[in-house]
Every structure is written in structure tokens, then in C-alpha cells.
Design goal:
There is one protein chain. The two termini are 50 Å apart. Strands 20, 24, 25, 26, 27, 28, 29, 30 and 31 form a 9-stranded antiparallel beta sheet that branches. This protein is of the alpha+beta class. The protein contains 30 helices and 31 strands.
Length: 993
């Protein structure tokens, strides 16, 4: 029920003189504004005339960086009242910005250009904040000696400490045992281990200076009036909140040498040079950063030349122990918008734990009382205000901070975004559950068009209405003051970021659509028949062929604890599994929803992508009516589904949503909360967890510092040999062995791919693994017998001819064999190849690179053979699937001919069915290709033509085959038509249109 107004609470009120008196002078625009800064922001957003190339610019690269854009609208004049400039009598900021605006190409090939904000442009300065010339040399600083390992004595000591504490996570008792064994082994030679015991090891780590931001705490206690003589227990409890100074944490991020090339210093707008379409990617490419810079300059023009640092927060309760009693923690994380999305997602310490919030508990009698609920809410907001207090002053007055490039810059902070699931968003925005925290749509009809919520609107209605009216009409909990009210330019409703994990994957897909399908089947067929159909759907899912990153459900989907990874895995295969059991409109509903999810998850989103997102959302809203028409559900007024409406706007504001998803903080839970908890003795575990996190941060910072100074090149062993002057083949042999071991054990249960931090050199590359199979065929005849393809020698001859005579346009089958070179030498057969490709939308390294293994082996994990499918580039000029063909790898092998190494693959081609994707599922359909006499269409191809692995799902509805008993490794051999699974991962979705 709605709360009763607390007369002691007050809200900031609007100024009496804030009446809009400035009109927009653009034809047809009827907007009015209170001050010049508001008018400037409006004209820049809705009437831009300076962000595109001027006429003739593209053909005149000499103009780059010095173009002055004409603004004919600036010549228009309109009468302004005396107070229009809010006390600032300088030149029009919009005119000044237009004069300074310039375009800059980025990346190879001049395919993309950017307009950088001319005001907050991250100008370099000295340590006193005085601006330096653009070509100023680095300020003199005390350089560290290249071999200064302080507080460690040498590299071995640091590497051992980092290995034992960070990687092995070894307990103190086990560390002592290891060091004791080590010491005993050195007694005869008179040596000593690098550390005496765990106390010695921890002491050295604790004395590390870099990365040290000490933990502090404060206490909060209920200070309200006790309304009776028997106060509730929570009223007398004292609540501890632990935190680290966020300002110092941000200083560490900005100074981290590992982020030097991964920071955006200036807000920008990015465009495709071929069509001038806007592109959104990292946070600083969004409109929020640009508009915030405008607002800061409008409020205080003296901030010009400063660096905007958007502060990104995230919080979420997490459970670390269930079996031994419910143990929960409430971590608070911080990142900054200057860090690029790939770095934030790659878990490179760009997201930092800065606090543990209090979690008040009380007796059952008092847990549901309005007073306790109100206290919990206000405790949360008051804690955030206290933790972030050190940022308040530098949000108004810039401070001088040292960056990782060794230059100082003046920095001004702003609360930018908050990563949270829906329950957390309700708490943050002080709204009633089942209302939208972003807009004013009524909870009974969330999909109606409504104005966006704002701090100003919220403050106004709270002053005007009673709490009951606020609760029932506006969905506002009016007796709670959000923490953002204590900080300049902060609006919690604007800060709430899109949450792909909880809104789409767990919410819209798993909790809504999958549940609706089960309810639909029960409603139409009855419970008994529906359960048989659901069992068949489970069998279909279990029979899907293995693929890198694909989660398998061998026992079906009926288990209690669903993780985000489980839901992601189900999304990849569910649409093909239900086809034939549900109407086409249900399949189309899933297709529209999945396409929406995969589009918003892209690393780069263009104006065309936004159009496709809007189209997918429109189709989803249209086709989902099938569930309501069937009587399965009563309303679509669901907050997490409704959130999809706000994605296009939020993409424009914050850039690609994958950089602000709660999956980032969920992953951080594991590293910062769950694993440290497991290392404690469970007694007052929080203090131990804080100490563990502090040591981890110091080791991470020390490694970044040593790497930046070039002190960690090579391995410990290679450096030792280098010092001894005897760098022998043992090192390369050891490396080969390591590579072979990695190849054999690289896969987890889901055969996960790996991320790479290497810079992007090419879009895709395939190479054979290091280890060849000595027990497999050693010549062409043996290979033909092993594969059961007697024509292999003939196919190989024609392959060699095509490689040696690439300009011969004849069909290989028409070339007489006597014209083809003959090969009967030795070959090497491989069980796998490694594909490395640029896939920034998937889990990848900081530069967007990822690699996966393509398997072709007669026995995989002792379960059966595994012969993966691949995409082969057959027409580089065509787009999407029209330039790709699908083939199944029967064997990888290599051979030498006339001194040239040929890495190859024996493949079985697939033929496309139809001229486009299936209209219901959106996936292309293929079938195994056959020649005359029903012979398989076999070929040998160079592995350079392979793009990456492909995943196929049987078209179950077109087969009279019971999937009962069919194992995943039988899938490609049992069925005769397949969907090209474009939902296998985000990169596949992008290339198989």
C-alpha cells in the first residue's frame, strides 16, 4: 500500500524565475527554454547543421581538421531577455562550437570519421592545471629504473607471488607446505626459497605501492522517531558500510598503463564515410557525453579544455553460500565511460569493486512494515551519497589528474550510468514495482507512448501531490530522496542503462516466451499431451550437433537453478526445436525477439541497425498477439518486455548496450566476491574478502606497471637462459609442447572459444594446430581408405592444378587428369584447426579478436566422431550467405609439393535450398550436396578459403525421425536438411543474412 507522507522530508523546488522565455528560432519548432544553455543543447540535438561533411570535403583531404562549417541559422536573430545568458555575457557557445568543429578520420582506409567535441577536448596541462601547447614534450618525471622490481627482489619473486595468490588461489597452509618442501630441496646446495612462509609472501604483496586505495568504513543507524515503547530491533542496530574512495579509484584507472590506448578522452560523434550514417559504439560516442559536455560548458565556460570522466556504477545482491546457510553480499562497482566497451567486457580491471553496502535484516514481525521498507530504501541511497561524496566538488570544479600517457589533464566528473537489473532499478529510481523507471507509462498499459521520467518532473509532482496520489498515478515512492539529488547534473532516471541479461535473456526470453510456449501447449493439447511434446522438444535440443560455445541440455531443461548462460544457450537452439509443435506466428515471435536481442548486442550500431531494431520490435509486438488471442496470457504490460521500447533511445545516449550490461557486474561477482569468499575461513568473512581484493588489485597494478616498463617480456625461463647466454632449443620445444597441450584441453564442457588481446590485423585467419596425428593416414591412398572416399587422389590432383594455375577458369572436373600434377608423397593429418577472427560483439579480447577450434576427428571425448561444419568464402564480392558456402570438414591435412606447404581440408559441400532465408525462422536451409549416382560432393580446399566454423540444426519438422536416442555426433549424418544456425553466436548472426 502507498506510504504516508513524512512531513520532515523535503525536496528541492523549482526556482520561481525559471519560466521558459527563450524560443527556438528554427522554422516550425515551438519549443521554449529557460536559459541559453538549454536552447543550445536543443539546437545541437534537434537542428544540427555542423556534423556532416561540407560539400566537396570528401574529395579534398587537405581540408581535414581545419574545416569551418557555415551556419546560416546563426545569422538569424531573435530578441532575448536580459537574463537569457544566466549571467554569462560571452559569445554564443553554439557559434563557437561550429567554428571549432572538425572531422577526423580513424582506422584503416578512412572508412570512418569523427567529430570531436571542441569544448571539453582533454587539453594537456602541467601538474598545476596550466594548459600546455599541443606539441609540448612530456613533463619531467622521476623515471623508474627498468630493473626496479620493488618491493619484490626480482622477477621470479613477483611471478611466484602472483601465481600463488592470483592464479592458484592457494591457502596460507598450502603455501607454507609448498615453501617448506622447496626449502628442504635447497638444503644441500645452501639455497633458500623466494619466500620463507605465507606471512613473508603476504607482507611483500601488502607493501606494493601501486594500485593501493585503502578501504574505509562508516556506520549508519536509524535516527527517526520510535513510535512506541517497544521499538523494532532494526531501529537500534548499527549497519557497517565498507568502501574505497571512488575518486582515487578513478585516478588509478586513468593512470593504468594497460589502458593507454583504450581510453576515449573526448566526446565524439562517429560516422560512416561511405554514407554519412551515424555509428554508436563506446560510451563516449553517445549523445549523453556530448550533451553533458555542452551542459558543463553552459554552466561554467571556464571548464573549457577539461576532460569529461563519466562515472558508471553498478550494484546487485549476490549469494555466495546456500548449502551452509544463506550468505549474501551487496557489492558496489565502478567504471568510467572513457574506457572502451571491449576492455570493460574483457574483465581487465576496468570495473572495480568500491564498496559493500549494508543489508538490513529484522524479525518476521517487522520485515514487512512500511517503516522498515522505507528505512532500507533510504539507507541504500544515503550510503551511495556518502561513498560518492569525494566526487561532488570535482563535478563542479575540475581537478588535475595524471593519465597513463604521463600527461596531466583537468578532469571534471559526472554521474553517467547505473548498471542494474529491474529490482535494483526500482530501488534506485524510487518507483513502485511494476512501473517503468524510464517513462511515465501507467503500469496497466506500459506499452502506451509516454514522456520520459526526469528529476525535474519528479521533484515537481512531489511538491504538488500527496504520497497516495504519487504512488497510484505516477508510480513514485515520494518519501525517499534518491542519491542523485545530492550531485550536480545527476538524474537517476537518465542514468539507468539497458540490461540485456535480465531484461531480454532472462526476462523476455526465459521467463516470458519460453514459459508462454509451455502454457500454450498445455492450453491447446492438455497437460498429458503437452508434456509429451515438451519431452520431444527436449530431445531435439539434446540432439543438436556440438559447436564452440554451445551449451548442451542432455537431460532437458527442467532444472531449478537457471543461470544467464543457460538462457543464452537455450536461445541459440530453441526456435528450431519448437517448429512444427507451435503455430508459425509463435515461431515468428521468437524470430523477431531473437533478432532484436542480437541486433542490440552488436558492438557497433548504425542508423540502419536502429531501423532494423525498430522493425524487429514492431514485428515482435505484432506476432506476440498469438499468445493473447489463444488465451494464454492476459496482458503484455510487463516491465522487462516494455524496456525494449527504450533501447533505441538508450543506444543513442550511451552507445552499444553490450558495454553496460549487468553480465559485466555478474562476472565481476565471481572474481571480487564469490571466489574471495571461498578463500576465507567463513568467520567474519567480509574483512578477509576485502583484504584479498586489495592484494589482488595490487598484484594486477604491479603487473601492468612492470609490463609498461618492458620488464615482463618473454617467460621466466627464457629470461634465465638469456642471462646465462645459453638460449637453446629447449625453450621452443617446451613452447610446442605447451601449444599441443593447450590444443587438446582448450575446450570446456561447452567447448568454449578463447579471447585474444592481440591487435586486429585481419578479419579472419585459419591455421592448422601444432600437433599432427601420427596414428592416422600418412599418404593419399591411406587417407582415401580411411575416409572411404576412393576418388581422393583424383580430387587432390585437380586441387593442385587449381593452386598452381589460379587463372585457369575451367571447371576443375573438366580438366583432363594428364594436365594435372600428380602427388603421392607424405601427408600429415590433423584433428583440428584454429580459426582467428574479428568478433567484437562476442566475448573477445580488448581488440575484438577471438579464436575457436574447428574439429575433425574420428573420436571426440570418447563419445563418437566429430566433424564440424565451416563457412567457405566462395564469392568475396557478395554479401552474407550469398558469398559463403557451407561445408563439412572430413579431414585436415597438409603436404609439401615442390617446396611449398599446402594446408588443406577434405570437405563435403552443402547446397542452399531456396534463394533466401526461411520466412518463419529467418535462417537459411541447406542440405548435403550430391553428384550423379547419389555420390557425395567431395572436394579438397585450401584452408585460407575457410572463414570460420558454422553450426547447423536439423529441420526437425520436415523429418519423420524420432530424435529419441540420437546423439549429438549423429546429427549431421542422420538428418538430410538443416538450418544454418545464425543464432549460434553474434558473429554468425552478423555474417549469415
Amino acid at each position: 500500500m502507498p506510504p504516508v507522507r513524512d512531513p520532515g522530508r523535503s525536496r528541492p523546488t523549482q526556482r520561481a524565475d525559471c519560466v521558459p522565455q527563450l524560443p527556438c528560432d528554427e522554422p516550425g519548432c515551438n519549443r521554449w527554454f529557460r536559459n541559453l544553455s538549454g536552447l543550445t543543447q536543443h539546437k545541437r540535438t534537434y537542428h544540427p547543421s555542423f556534423s556532416r561533411y561540407p560539400e566537396g570535403f570528401r574529395n579534398n583531404p587537405g581540408l581535414l581538421g581545419s574545416v569551418e562549417h557555415e551556419d546560416h541559422a546563426a545569422d538569424r536573430s531573435s530578441p532575448l531577455p536580459d537574463h537569457a545568458s544566466d549571467g554569462y555575457q560571452g559569445e554564443d557557445l553554439l557559434d563557437r562550437e561550429r567554428e571549432a568543429m572538425s572531422a577526423k578520420f580513424i582506422g584503416p582506409g578512412s572508412k570512418v570519421y569523427r567529430n570531436y567535441h571542441p569544448g571539453l577536448n582533454a587539453h594537456k596541462c602541467d601538474d598545476r592545471g596550466q594548459f600546455l601547447p599541443d606539441d609540448a614534450p612530456l613533463p619531467p618525471r622521476a623515471e623508474k629504473v627498468p630493473n626496479d622490481w620493488n618491493p619484490y627482489r626480482n622477477r621470479l619473486e613477483f611471478e611466484l607471488a602472483d601465481f600463488l595468490f592470483t592464479h592458484a588461489e592457494m591457502s596460507a597452509k598450502k603455501i607454507d607446505m609448498l615453501l617448506e618442501i622447496w626449502a628442504a630441496s635447497l638444503l644441500e646446495s645452501g639455497g633458500q626459497p623466494l619466500f620463507m612462509n605465507h606471512v613473508d609472501l603476504y607482507g611483500v604483496i601488502d607493501s606494493t605501492r601501486v594500485g593501493n586505495v585503502r578501504w574505509e568504513n562508516f556506520t549508519i543507524q536509524y535516527a527517526g522517531e520510535e513510535r512506541n515503547n517497544d521499538p523494532a530491533p532494526w531501529m537500534s542496530d548499527v549497519y557497517d558500510v565498507w568502501f574505497r574512495d571512488p575518486r582515487k579509484v578513478i585516478h588509478n584507472i586513468l593512470a593504468n598503463s594497460g589502458f593507454t590506448d583504450e581510453l576515449d578522452y573526448v566526446p565524439y560523434r562517429e560516422y560512416d564515410a561511405s554514407n554519412d550514417q551515424r555509428r554508436w559504439q563506446d560510451f563516449m560516442s553517445g549523445d549523453w557525453a556530448w550533451e553533458q559536455a555542452d551542459r558543463i560548458l553552459g554552466d561554467d565556460p571556464t571548464t573549457g579544455g577539461a576532460t569529461l570522466v563519466p562515472v558508471i556504477l553498478g550494484s546487485d545482491k549476490t549469494t555466495v553460500s546456500v548449502a551452509t546457510g544463506q550468505t549474501d553480499y551487496y557489492p558496489l562497482y565502478l567504471s568510467i565511460g572513457n574506457v572502451r566497451n571491449t576492455v570493460r567486457r574483457a574483465h581487465r580491471n576496468a570495473v572495480v569493486l568500491i564498496g559493500f553496502l549494508a543489508m538490513p535484516k529484522t524479525t518476521r514481525e517487522h520485515a514487512s512494515t512500511p517503516a522498515f521498507r522505507r528505512f532500507k530504501r533510504q539507507l541504500f541511497h544515503s550510503s551511495l551519497t556518502r561513498i560518492l561524496h569525494s566526487l561532488c566538488r570535482p563535478m563542479k570544479v575540475p581537478e588535475t589528474v595524471l593519465f597513463s600517457d604521463n600527461y596531466y589533464r583537468r578532469v571534471i566528473y559526472a554521474l553517467a550510468a547505473y548498471i542494474a537489473d529491474y529490482e535494483e532499478q526500482v530501488l534506485l529510481s524510487c518507483i513502485v514495482r511494476n512501473w517503468c523507471p524510464k517513462c511515465l507509462a501507467h503500469r496497466d498499459n506500459l506499452d502506451e507512448n509516454a514522456l520520459r521520467r526526469s528529476r525535474e518532473h519528479c521533484d515537481t509532482v512531489i511538491e504538488e501531490f500527496e504520497l497516495c496520489k504519487l504512488w497510484e498515478t505516477y508510480g513514485i515512492v515520494g518519501d525517499i530522496v534518491p542519491f542523485t539529488n545530492d550531485f550536480p547534473r545527476a538524474d537517476i532516471h537518465q542514468m539507468l542503462s539497458p540490461d540485456i541479461l535480465h531484461q531480454l535473456i532472462k526476462g523476455g526470453f526465459k521467463d516470458h516466451l519460453v514459459d508462454w510456449v509451455e502454457r500454450y501447449l498445455v492450453h491447446i493439447h492438455g497437460k498429458s499431451e503437452a508434456e509429451k511434446i515438451l519431452d520431444d522438444i527436449d530431445r531435439r535440443i539434446a540432439a543438436v550437433a556440438p559447436f564452440t560455445g554451445l551449451r548442451r541440455f542432455p537431460q532437458g531443461r527442467h532444472f531449478k537453478q537457471w543461470t544467464g548462460d543457460d538462457s543464452k544457450g537455450l536461445m541459440k537452439v530453441y526456435i528450431a526445436a519448437i517448429e512444427g509443435h507451435v503455430p508459425k506466428d509463435v515461431v515468428r515471435t521468437f524470430r523477431a525477439f531473437l533478432e532484436f536481442c542480437y541486433l542490440v548486442r552488436r558492438n557497433v550500431i548504425t542508423e540502419q541497425t536502429l531501423t532494423e531494431i525498430d522493425d524487429a520490435l514492431s514485428r515482435f509486438h505484432r506476432f506476440r498477439e498469438v499468445f493473447q488471442n489463444a488465451g494464454v496470457i492476459e496482458t503484455f504490460s510487463l516491465p522487462r518486455q516494455h524496456a525494449m521500447k527504450h533501447y533505441p533511445y538508450l543506444i543513442r545516449q550511451f552507445g552499444a548496450p553490450n558495454g553496460l550490461c549487468s553480465s559485466i557486474t555478474e562476472s565481476k561477482h565471481v572474481k571480487a566476491v564469490k571466489r574471495p569468499y571461498r578463500r576465507t575461513n567463513r568467520f567474519k568473512a567480509l574483512g578477509q574478502m576485502i583484504l584479498i581484493n586489495q592484494r589482488l588489485d595490487k598484484l594486477t597494478a604491479a603487473r601492468a606497471d612492470f609490463q609498461q616498463r618492458g620488464m615482463l617480456n618473454g617467460t621466466c625461463l627464457s629470461k634465465a637462459f638469456e642471462v646465462l647466454g645459453s638460449h637453446t632449443n629447449r625453450i621452443s620445444e617446451g613452447q610446442d609442447a605447451a601449444d599441443e597441450g593447450d590444443e587438446q584441453t582448450a575446450s570446456y564442457e561447452e567447448d568454449a572459444g578463447d579471447t585474444l588481446d592481440d591487435p586486429m590485423a585481419i578479419n579472419a585467419h585459419v591455421s592448422l594446430t601444432c600437433k599432427y596425428q601420427r596414428a592416422r593416414a600418412k599418404n593419399v591412398g591411406a587417407l582415401a581408405a580411411e575416409l572411404g572416399v576412393p576418388e581422393i587422389p583424383t580430387i587432390l590432383c585437380r586441387f593442385l592444378h587449381s593452386q598452381l594455375h589460379p587463372t585457369d577458369t575451367r571447371n576443375p572436373e573438366d580438366i583432363p587428369l594428364y594436365e594435372c600434377p600428380f602427388f603421392d608423397g607424405k601427408i600429415r593429418v590433423y584433428n583440428s584447426a584454429c580459426s582467428t577472427f574479428f568478433a567484437p560483439s562476442d566475448l573477445s579480447g580488448t581488440h575484438g579478436m577471438r579464436h575457436e577450434y574447428i574439429r575433425s576427428c574420428p573420436m571426440w571425448r570418447n563419445e563418437g566422431p566429430r566433424y564440424d561444419c565451416v563457412f567457405v568464402v566462395t564469392d568475396p564480392q557478395a554479401d552474407g550467405m550469398r558469398g559463403l558456402d557451407v561445408a563439412r570438414i572430413l579431414c585436415f591435412f597438409s603436404f609439401k609439393y615442390q617446396g611449398t606447404l599446402f594446408p588443406c581440408a577434405v570437405v563435403h559441400w552443402f547446397d542452399r535450398i531456396g534463394d533466401g532465408p526461411d520466412t518463419a525462422t529467418g535462417m537459411w536451409i541447406v542440405r548435403p550436396s550430391r553428384r550423379t549416382h547419389n555420390l557425395r560432393n567431395i572436394a579438397i580446399i585450401h584452408i585460407d578459403t575457410i572463414y570460420r566454423a558454422a553450426h547447423l540444426i536439423p529441420v526437425y519438422s520436415s523429418h519423420n525421425i524420432d530424435p529419441r536416442g540420437i546423439k549429438p555426433h549423429h546429427s549431421y549424418d542422420t538428418f538430410h536438411s538443416f538450418y544454418v544456425n545464425k543464432y549460434a553466436d553474434h558473429h554468425t548472426f552478423e555474417i549469415t543474412f
